Amino acid sequence: MPSSRRLVLIAAVIVLLDQWSKTWAVNALANGRTIDLVWTLRFALGFNSGIAFSQAQDLGAFVGLIAMVAVVVLSRAAIRATTALSAYGLALITAGAIGNLADRIFRGGGWLRGHVVDFIDLQWFPVFNIADSAITVGAGVLIIGLSREYVGAKRHEGQV
């Protein structure tokens, strides 16, 4: 099992990279500027006051409150996880939630009325950011970890 210190360090690095990259994007991609990288991958600035894929734009403060509760619940779950994969997955999800919550708190609009900065644009998928990537990868790692836990428990019971 990873130590709490290691989980916090991983989450902190992801949050710092996320916030740094968003600050860079706001400055470098102002006035509609885009940076084409490879194939359909480009950097293009977008703002989202709602939830994933720009849904629920008028519920920004509510989404912010839910995110605050989620950060607390996910943090506790990561520290109490019973397998390393589950702990790492929860740490990644928590880091992503903190990164996007920081945007809602500090990026315009007032307390919890801000917007999440998105800038990674594949042009065939909704625009996203490092925090969103951490949440997605973390969810995958968590699913694998929970699946292994389940199979291990069934083996222990002699059902697999």
Automatic annotation (TrEMBL):
<keyword id="KW-0812">Transmembrane</keyword>
<feature type="transmembrane region" description="Helical">
    <location>
        <begin position="122"/>
        <end position="146"/>
    </location>
</feature>
<feature type="transmembrane region" description="Helical">
    <location>
        <begin position="59"/>
        <end position="78"/>
    </location>
</feature>
<dbReference type="Pfam" id="PF01252">
    <property type="entry name" value="Peptidase_A8"/>
</dbReference>
<feature type="transmembrane region" description="Helical">
    <location>
        <begin position="85"/>
        <end position="102"/>
    </location>
</feature>
<keyword id="KW-0472">Membrane</keyword>
<dbReference type="InterPro" id="IPR001872">
    <property type="entry name" value="Peptidase_A8"/>
</dbReference>
<protein>
    <submittedName>
        <fullName>Unannotated protein</fullName>
    </submittedName>
</protein>
<dbReference type="GO" id="GO:0006508">
    <property type="term" value="P:proteolysis"/>
</dbReference>
<keyword id="KW-0645">Protease</keyword>
<keyword id="KW-0378">Hydrolase</keyword>
<keyword id="KW-1133">Transmembrane helix</keyword>
<dbReference type="GO" id="GO:0004190">
    <property type="term" value="F:aspartic-type endopeptidase activity"/>
</dbReference>
<dbReference type="GO" id="GO:0016020">
    <property type="term" value="C:membrane"/>
</dbReference>
<keyword id="KW-1003">Cell membrane</keyword>
